[in-house]
Task: structure prediction
Amino acid sequence: NETNVEVMRGMLAQRPQVEMQVSMTGTEGLRSIRARHPDLILLDMHLPDISGIEVLRQLQADTHTAGIPVVVVSADALAQQIDAAFEAGCTHYLTKPVNVGELLTVLDDLLERIDTRFG
Result:
């Protein structure tokens, strides 16, 4: 939702090198990811059209997107949901409300790995 998007924009404003593109549905997100091939993905598990798990599965099934790190950001803190997300291919799982320091640490780590790999 728009509130979550604005909260995330505020957090990411601390990393001006990060450009945030927003998709409000899983289908739109998959289309955008395939077209833009971002360095990393922030994914909510509860989308209006398809589940975050399905998005993860589709990303992993596509050789062009399977290597993109995915950070799940979700209000769902149940161990079963978290395990399912990791099994489907997420790299990190952060629960809402998101701790800004934790989010930035995860992003910094992933971006550093990407820089090192593609330098």
Q: What stands out?
A: The longest strand covers residues 70-74. The mean pLDDT is 94. Helices lie at 2-12, 26-36, 52-61, 79-88, 100-118. The beta strands are 41-43, 70-74, 92-95.
